[in-house]
Every structure is written in C-alpha cells, then in structure tokens.
C-alpha cells in the first residue's frame, strides 16, 4: 500500500517537476581543478594529511535478490570510506527503498585517497574531467521512479565514478534526488554537473549531510522533498472552509500525510466542552503525548486516533499536529463553536 502511495506521489511529482531543475541544462564547464576550490568561505582544507577512519571498500556486499514486489524507490551510493554508505542505509531504511552500491572495478586504497598528496589516484582523476573509473557491478534502474543518489565530495565535486554511472544510466521517468557527505564543503555544483552529464531524468536540488546526520533530520528532509517537490501539502477544511495550517514536523503528521495522500479523509466532529471539536480519525497514528495547554487554532492528536481542533483552551496530554494560522480566536469560535462540524483532510 505504502509503495502504491509512493508510486502515485512520484508519478505526480514527475508532472510537477517540470518546474524543478530541468535535465536539459547547460553542461557546466569541466575545468582543471583549481588549487583553491571556490571562494575562501567554502574552501575545504583537510585538518591533517593523516587520514583518519579510512577503510577499504567493502567487497562483501549482500547479494542482490529479486524482490517479490518491485520497489519503486532506489538508493544508489558510492562510498570510499563508509560515510556516505551510512547515510544511504538510513535513507533506505526510512523510505523502504532498495539499496545498491556503486563498486569500483579497481578499489580505492588509502594511498589512492590521500588528499594530502595531489599526485595520488583520486586527485589525478578529479583533475581530469575525462576520467571515468570503471564500475564493477551493473545497476539497473528498471522499474524505479525515485532514485536517491549519494556520493562523497572530492575536491568540491562528485567523484568521477559518478560521472561514469550517470552517463551509462537511463534516468527517463525517474526523479533523481542527489545527496552527498563531505568534511565541510556543500554540495555545490556537483548535483548540477551530474544532471547535465546524465541528460535524462528529473533532477531535484541535492543536499549535503554530515556522516552523523540523525534519522529525524533525514526524515524531515525526505518529507520536505516529497511535499515541496510535488507542490502539495496537507490541507484542512472545516465545513468546506479552507484553513491555513502550520503542520508539525513529526511522525504523526507524516503518517497522516501518507494516509491522506491516497484519499481525502472526512471526519465528523463533535463540539465538546465549549472549547474544542473532536472526531475519530478511523486510523491509529504514532503518538508522542505531552502535557499541553492548548490555544485557539491548535490541532492535536488525542489518544492516537482522534483529532481535536481548538477554538478555546484545555490542558491534557496530546500530540501536537499543527496550528491554524489564518484565523483569529473569534473567527475560530464563529467557525467551530456553533455546533458539530465536518472536517476534510486532503493532500493537494
Ligand atoms: C580525495 C578526497 C577529496 C576530498 N575533498 C573534500 C572536499 O573538497 N571538501 C570536503 O568537505 N571534504 C572532502 N573530502 C572528505 C570527504 O568528502 C568526506 O570524508 C566524505 O564524507 C567521505 O565519504 P565516504 O566515506 O562515503 O567516501 C575529501 C576526501 C577525499 C578522500
């Protein structure tokens, strides 16, 4: 079911993303790597030439097995020292995506990666815009509509093996979401360069992460991507009146969004206590109840399965869902304080 929802998300996203980064972009000039990368504020300088935490590329990837049901989301990554792999694994776990590694035919040794020595393999490759290191494994994009593509930043750019991958893949019908890890540099133009080299697919703005990025931060980014790139969000209407809501960034709201994205949810509410409207959602949402004193406009989850919209105040253990931002307290009383109402939650 989740996969069907995601498929619908991304099919729609493909349509909406006409306004996103286009794949038909001017190919950025690939020039010799300058001695200093970008402006001073963005320069990445290794703290020491002693590389720490360097590991050989794992040669023992789990064998790929045929999924019973085709997954439509895939995470593909290249990682020389394991940092990007860690982030890729988290993204795959959150999204339920398949996970595949770009494995270099010739593994990178610690010496190859020594950024203190500009004559080593990684530096030489990055200095040569034509370098295309061989990939050991074939990665098929068949059946996938969303691709998270991860890589480390090497001298301000994506490693050349990424160019090999994107130039040999067909991203037609695929939304590509680049992400990278680095010592400190931002993603810069690396995602644009890869999009230009790929020449197909819908590429959205990429994002840089620390190796120690939390699952919560990644979840926030993933739902932001889904919502913003589709230009759609969770809407609420009371008896047909649309209200602007500032939704919380939490698991409960994400679960509600996912539920509503497949079909609008109509909830019959009952006015209660002279300060709130309460209605059964008909579904259980993740809850993280906290003792809360509500204000007019607050929308909360009660008991994991009821939505409460306040036009007055109450103190109880609730999970916050959001807050109506475009109505005054008296307007809310007018709307919600004159008998039972029906609310409609929709993804549009
Ligand atoms: C050859 C090389 C060049 C690098 N260049 C940069 C850089 O320009 N900016 C930066 O912030 N980090 C740079 N780094 C650090 C890596 O981007 C960072 O450690 C990354 O998280 C490694 O990811 P991985 O473990 O998945 O390979 C470089 C590392 C190497 C090996």
**Strand portion, in percent?**
15-25%
| Helical segment count | 8
Helical proportion?
25-40%
Secondary-structure-derived class:
alpha/beta
Our measurement of the CA-to-CA distance between the termini, rounded to an integer number of angstroms, reads 19 Å
Order of helices and strands: HEHEHEHEHEEHEEEHEEEEEEEHE
Query: What is the CATH superfamily of the largest domain?
Result: Flavodoxin domain
CATH architecture of the largest domain: 3-Layer(aba) Sandwich
Unreliable stretches (pLDDT < 50, length at least 5) are 13-67
Per CATH, the class of the largest domain reads: Alpha Beta
Principal-axes geometry comes out as elongated
What's the main sheet like? 7 strands, antiparallel
Indicate the radius of gyration in whole angstroms: 24 Å
Please report the total strand number as a whole number: 17
Mean pLDDT across every amino acid position: 82
CATH topology of the largest domain: Rossmann fold
Overall tally of domains: 2
Name the hetero compounds present: flavin mononucleotide
Structure description:
The protein is α/β, with parallel strands linked by helices and 348 residues long. It folds into 2 domains: 73-229, Flavodoxin domain (Rossmann fold), CATH 3.40.50.360; 234-347, Cyclophilin. 25% of the residues lie in helices and 23% in strands. The protein is built from 8 helices and 17 strands. It has helices at residues 2-16, 83-95, 121-127, 160-167, 190-198, 215-230, 251-262, 329-336, and strands at residues 73-77, 98-101, 146-152, 175-181, 202-203, 207-209, 234-238, 241-243, 245-247, 265-268, 270-272, 276-280, 290-293, 298-302, 306-310, 315-324, 342-347. Strands 9, 11, 12, 13, 14, 15 and 16 form a 7-stranded antiparallel sheet that branches. Strands 1, 2, 3, 4, 5 and 6 form a 6-stranded parallel sheet that branches. The longest helix is centred in the middle third of the chain and has 16 residues, at 215-230. Flavin mononucleotide binds at residues 37, 44, 79-85, 113, 115, 122, 152-156, 181-185, 211.
């Amino acid at each position: 079911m989740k996969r069907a929802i995601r498929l619908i998300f991304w099919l729609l996203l493909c349509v909406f993303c006409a306004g996103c980064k286009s794949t038909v972009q001017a190919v950025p000039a690939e020039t010799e790597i300058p001695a200093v990368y970008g402006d001073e504020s963005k320069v990445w300088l290794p703290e020491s030439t002693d590389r720490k935490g360097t590991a050989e590329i794992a040669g023992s990837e789990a064998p790929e097995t045929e999924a019973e049901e085709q997954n439509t989301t895939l995470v593909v990554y290249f990682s020389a020292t394991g940092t990007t792999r860690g982030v890729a694994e988290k993204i795959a776990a959150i999204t339920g995506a398949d996970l595949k590694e770009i494995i270099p035919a010739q593994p990178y040794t610690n010496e190859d990666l020594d950024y203190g020595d500009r004559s080593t393999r990684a530096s030489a490759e990055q200095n040569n815009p034509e370098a295309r290191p061989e990939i050991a494994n074939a990665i098929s994009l068949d059946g996938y509509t969303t691709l998270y593509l991860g890589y480390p930043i090497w001298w301000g750019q994506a490693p050349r093996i990424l160019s090999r991958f994107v130039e040999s893949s067909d991203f037609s019908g695929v939304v590509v979401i680049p992400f990278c890890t680095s010592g400190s540099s931002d993603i810069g133009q690396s995602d644009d360069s890869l999009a230009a080299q790929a020449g197909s697919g819908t590429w959205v703005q990429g994002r840089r992460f620390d190796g120690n990025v939390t699952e919560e931060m990644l979840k926030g980014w993933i739902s932001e991507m889904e919502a913003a790139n589709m230009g759609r969000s969770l809407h609420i209407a009371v008896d047909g009146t649309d209200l602007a809501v500032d939704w919380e960034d939490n698991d409960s709201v994400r679960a509600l969004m996912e539920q509503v994205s497949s079909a609008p949810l109509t909830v019959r509410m009952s006015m209660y206590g002279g300060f709130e409207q309460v209605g059964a959602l008909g579904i259980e949402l993740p809850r993280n109840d906290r003792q809360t004193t509500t204000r007019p406009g607050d929308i909360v989850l009660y008991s994991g399965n009821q939505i409460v919209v306040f036009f007055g105040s109450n103190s109880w253990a609730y999970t916050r869902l959001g807050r109506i931002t475009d109505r005054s307290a008296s307007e809310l009383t007018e709307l919600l304080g004159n008998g039972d109402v029906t609310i409609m939650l929709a993804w549009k």
